[in-house]
Amino acid sequence: LMAQRSKTVVGLDIDPTGIIAAQVGSGGRISVDRCASITLDPGVVRDGEILDVEALSDALKTLYRNNKNLDRRVRVGLANQKIVVRTIEMPLIKDRKELAAAVRFQAADELPMPLDQAVLDWQPLEIVDTDAGKRQRILLVAARRDMIDRVVSAVRGAGLRLEGIDLGAFGMIRALGTPGADGGAEDTAAVLYVAAGGLTNLAVARGTQCLFTRAAGGGVEAIAIDLAERRALTLEHARDWLTYVGLNTDVTTLEGDAEIVADARRALEDGVRRVATDVRQSLDFHHMQSGGSTVGRAVLTGRGAEIDGFAEALAAELNLPVTRGEVAGAPEDDAATYAVAAGLSVPGTPDINLLPSEERKAAG
Question: H/E/C letters for each residue in the chain?
């Protein structure tokens, strides 16, 4: 269930292919009230990092000019390989300021970047019993300051009010991860969430608690680029061909250029295997790092979920049941692409904000 909110915030899911914006209603389960999207030119965002601040600002201005009903307060979700997410254990410290100082001190050893070049935030998780006694488990998230500064500049340059910078993976879990209704096994089972779009953003969660998250290059956009290069197509046409051909229909029954149809099918089959390989490697890393929980099922969202047969093919590759992750209220033809943005539109646990402290003051 959504937490009560005092103000409306639009979630912005920005990846190499475009911007997805969603604004959810107040009260009840997450349901999209307003949404919009816009594609980005190649090179504006690469592997989840903003390379062209001015071009992204212009795209945001266009998005809002064409969708005047969207609130100008926004929360942006990040997903790239350079964001650091760690779970650390600390002594029990009741005073919040003392705990914050202790977390920052330990973060110096945990982060692959100097603290003065990083923006970090943290949230306490559960208290656990260890050989050294009771310890406070802390979720620590950090990103390079220059990466965050580009987000701030792009959003502010579009005349929007930046309320926070979150992780796209956390938004995905908020939108799609619900505890079991009966309080049974579903409450403790680990679930894999995969957003396949301009990159592959994945998370492992138990209920609504994130246990692990990682972003990998590639995703559906890499498949479109592959097809575009094979057949000398524009990226837009390549994306359309992938959606048209899919993975379920007999290619001999499809109309259009037979060679392009065949190449689109091959690109999709190869692409699903690459996505599955990235997912397996990430899960292996998760287990090595923390002895992570066994995943029992997966939820697919993003543009990959809108390609016919993609979820079934991924399920076969991973040997896991895979369902499509959609949010209520989103357009029926691409309901799965709005999950991350919808989740970013609501507060939740963990409440992480990578907006620098001076920018938070400016946001009020």
Answer: CCCCCCCCCEEEEEECCEEEEEEECCCCCCEEEEEEEEECCCCCEECCEECCHHHHHHHHHHHHHHCCCCCCEEEEEECCCCCEEEEEEEECCCCHHHHHHHHHHHHHHHCCCCHHHEEEEEEEEEEEEECCEEEEEEEEEEEEHHHHHHHHHHHHHCCCEEEEEEEHHHHHHHHHCCCCCCCCHHHCCEEEEEEECCCEEEEEEECCEEEEEEEECCCHHHHHHHHHHHHCCCHHHHHHHHHHHCCCCCHHHCCCCHHHHHHHHHHHHHHHHHHHHHHHHHHHHHHHHHCCCCEEEEEEECHHHHCCCHHHHHHHHHCCCEEECCCECCCHHHHHHHHHHHHHCCCCCCCCCCCCHHHHHHHC
d(CA 185, CA 196): 27
Average pLDDT value over all residues in the chain: 89
Token readout for 175 is 């939108």
Asked if the bond preceding 350 is cis, omega within 30° of 0, the reply is yes
The whole-model pTM stands at 0.90
Q: How many residues does the chain have?
A: 364
Sign of CA pseudo-dihedral 157, 158, 160, 163:
negative
10 has a pLDDT exceeding 90: yes
Predicted confidence (pLDDT) per residue in 36-52, tens digit: 999 999 899 998 999 99
Structure tokens at 103: 């977390």
Cross-strand bridge partners of residue 22: 11, 35
CB 52 within 8 A of CB 148: no
| 291 neighbors 168 (Cβ within 8 angstroms) | no
**Once rounded to an integer, what is the mean pLDDT over residues 81-109?**
90
- The answer to whether 216 and 246 are in contact (CB under 8 A) is no
Cross-strand pairs, 143: 119
Beta carbons of 287 and 202 less than 8 angstroms apart: no
Give residue for tokens 């357009």: 331
Query: Can you tell me the distance from the alpha carbon of 283 to that of 262, in angstroms, rounded to the nearest whole number?
Result: 32
265, 266, 272, 274: CA torsion to nearest 10: -160
